[in-house]
Here is the input.
Amino acid sequence: MLMTRETRRLYRLTRAIFNCFLVCEEDGSATLIDTGLPGSASSILKRARKLGTPIRRILLTHAHQDHVGSLDALCTQLSGVEIFIGASEAPLLAGDCSSYGCPPGKRAFGFIKTRTGPSHLLQDGEMVGALQTVFSPGHTPGHVAFFDTRDGTLLAGDSFTTQMGVVAAGVFKVYFPLPRWFSWNLPAAAASARKLCDLRPTRLAAGHGRTLEDPREAMERATHIALRQAAHSGVAT
Here is the structure.
């Protein structure tokens, strides 16, 4: 797992094309944003120890496997760690995929059921330290992003990707179809992209791809494409 220092407070941890983030708090502790694929726990803990920042909180943007895959393993080694997830996303973490139309006991593609449940359900606008919760459904029904009010960094989860240029969730591009394939609802994702643009972030840190400085122009272009595709999709939110 590669660790990249983005700012004095923000570190990106990358395994293949999957990112999670360590956000340093003023009290010397760290908040982990997402947990990566299964098998990432030891690398995450090693990087946190290297920084001398014990992980006190885990904030989950959504319940896809590449974002919660190491949650259980981390929680067996982090005594007293707090787990946060959006209130609308929590059922997916527990294996309830009824929001995807799945019958009881069946899970939608890309989700796993974790043994670890949340200690706190997030509401839109709620603060966790310096991080503001931003409800941003579309990629999944209860997706949330986090906005660092200290420096304007947007921890976008999968509401945007930067892997192949800046792309909003739900958008289809021939050369990079994953944002469409793995997203729940394009019109909702487009509306969330608009909401996140309106925060006027100084930095975009996404679940896939490099962190982008001064991202607003690129985010606006991506949002315009998402809104245009949504208008022609015929899919209701």
